[in-house]
Amino acid sequence: MRLELPQCRRCFFCIPLRYGIIVFGYLNMTFSLLILGVESHWLVRTNKITDLLTDIPMMFRGTGMYTHVWFTIVIYTLEVVFNIILVIGAHAKRPYLMRIYYYYSITTTLAAFVVLLVVRQDYGYTRFDPIDVCLAFIGLVMQLYLTLLIHNELSKNRYQEGRMSYVNHVSEVTFHPVAWVDTNP
C-alpha cells in the first residue's frame, strides 16, 4: 500500500522548509524545558523524594493523562534530547539526525494517539470535554505537521546520497539532415 503525502516546500507558506523545522525544534525544546522546570521546581519546593510517585496531570503530544512525576520528567527529558538532535540535524543538514527525530516523532505520536483512545475509552464516550479534545487535536496536528515537514526535507535531492542516477540523453539524439533545395535563381 502506498500513501501519497502532500509536498510542502515552505513552512506556513512563507518560511523556507529547513528554517521552519529549526523554529519548530526550538519551540518544542522551549516548551519541554518549561515543563521540566515547573516539575523540578515543584519537586524542590516539596523537598520529598516520595513525591516522585505522586500522580499529576500531564499533557504530552495533545494527550492529557495522570502519571507519576518521575514519568513526566523522563518523557520531557527525552523530548529535550530528541529536539536537540533535530535542531543540530537541521542546522548542520545532517539527514541521519533528522531521520532519528522523524522516527521518534512517528513513534511517540502514535503512542500518544493510542493512549488518547485508551483514556477516552476509560471515561466512556458519553463524557465529552471540548477543551480537552481541542487541545488533543491541536497537539496532534502540530506534531503531524512537523513530521510532514521533516519528511519533505528528507525527501529533497540533496539528502538522497546513494539514489542519484544520471541518464545520458545524447545517445538518443538523432540528426536528420534536410535535403538541400536551391530555390534562388
Entry keywords:
4 helices; membrane; transmembrane; 4 strands; elongated; mainly alpha; transmembrane helix
Describe the protein in words.
With 185 residues, this protein is mostly helical. The protein contains four helices and four strands, in the order E-E-H-E-E-H-H-H. The chain has helices spanning 17-46, 69-92, 95-123, 130-154, and strands at 10-11, 15-16, 55-60, 63-68. Helix 1 (17-46) packs antiparallel against helix 2. The longest helix has 30 residues, at 17-46. The chain is elongated.
Topology:
Elements: E1 10-11, E2 15-16, H1 17-46, E3 55-60, E4 63-68, H2 69-92, H3 95-123, H4 130-154
Antiparallel strand pairs: 1-2, 3-4
On the 0-100 scale, what is the average pLDDT?
A: 79
Radius of gyration: 26 Å
Q: What string, H for helix and E for strand, traces the elements in order? A: EEHEEHHH
- Which regions are unreliable across 5 or more consecutive residues at pLDDT < 50? none
Number of E-type strands: 4
Strand portion, in percent?
5-15%
Quote the distance from N terminus to C terminus. Answer: 70 Å
Largest sheet: 2 strands, antiparallel
Q: Which percent range fits the helix content?
A: 55-70%
How would you classify the helix and strand content by structural class?
Answer: mainly alpha
